[in-house]
Amino acid sequence: MSEPIRSAERSEQPARERSSYRERVVRLGSAKELAGILCEPASSPSSPRPVVVMWNVGLNHHVGPYRTFVDLSRKLAEVGFCSVRFDLSGLGDSEFAADDARVDSERSVADVRAVLEQLPELTGSIRAVLVGFCSSVDSAHAAALQDPRVIGIINIEGYSFPTLGFRLRYPLRFLSMSRWIRWAYHRRQRRLQSGSALVADEAEQAVYEREYPTPQRLASEYRQLVARGVRILCLYVRGDSNYVYKDQFFDFLGDRSLASHIEVEYFPDADHIFTLTKHRDRALSRIVDFVRERFSAE
Q1: Smallest Cα–Cα separation from 273: which of 73, 65, 59, 85?
Q2: Where are the domains of the chain?
Q3: pLDDT tens sequence across 198-229
Q4: Which residues pair with 152 in a beta bridge?
Q5: Dihedral, CA atoms, 213, 215, 221, 223, nearest 10 degrees?
Q6: What angle do CA 107, 110, 215 make, to 5 degrees?
Q7: Does an H or E element contain 224, and which?
């Protein structure tokens, strides 16, 4: 267990307060093995609203790339929503049981559902909106299918598959100077690697291997979620991705009827982790608007 959490446990660290939000360290999970931050509005709404839950992106700490989840949590508090951002087992400040034989994907879903169990005592709410970002879309999607407490999903840079429209547009990327600059940079970096460094790099890449559902299965599962009333927002970028036009989502699912139930936002100028502040701000504003408009009355 890391020192910051031990200190918080001993002293019951008071909530960090700002004009629009309060934050405090919380211990989550059946054995309190998961570390997280609860962010609440400075003044609570008259009735409990769904809680927005977010966790690690790959091996990143629960703050998210460029502190995306920190900023999102505080912006949500400004419009009256609580949120929890936490570390999965064995990542960041959360513990990992040495005798836990579950595969990572199974453990991640179990961690998410363990956090959902504690929402009533933390916030008074029994419902949640899950935020998946890249690899964490896997556990968000699986948890939503399994748990009726999930009434909303926000997927950032989630599942994507090539389509005819993708193939027709793909050659246009070769006209982008920024792509050639990145290609040259990464090629040079790989040339500088040798021996064990290259082996280590290949081993690190294996961490990010994921098992994608087929488009057919994914479409079927989205229909299940929509039928249950789950509201869904998917955000995609063009930079550094295989997503090149807004409606590619519905094309690879092969079900245009879902367009009336699932919102898709496309940021053609942004990169995978929204490196530029202006792109990140636009994405966060879209997410906050979605949460406020779809769940304020829940």
Answers
A1: 65
A2: 3-166+220-295
A3: 444 444 444 446 678 999 999 999 999 999 99
A4: 129, 231
A5: 170
A6: 80
A7: helix 215-227
Sheet holding 34-41, edge to edge: 16-17, 21-28, 34-41, 83-86, 51-55, 128-133, 150-156, 231-237, 262-267
The two three-digit tokens of residue 77, written as one number: 């508090």
- Measuring CA to CA, which residue among 87, 22, 24, 82 is closest to residue 52? 82
**Phi, psi angles (nearest 5°) of residue 96:** -135, 125
Q: How is residue 45 written in tokens?
A: 């709404």
Distinct helix (H) and strand (E) counts, the chain:
10, 9
pLDDT in tens, 21-60: 999 999 999 889 999 999 999 987 767 899 999 999 988 8
Report the share of the chain in percent with pLDDT over 90.
67
Residue 259 has pLDDT above 70, yes or no: yes
Q: What kind of fold does domain 3-166+220-295 have according to CATH?
A: Rossmann fold (3.40.50)
Find, among 83, 90, 6, the residue nearest to 56 by Cα. 90
Helix axes of 277-295 and 68-78: crossing angle, nearest 10 degrees: 40
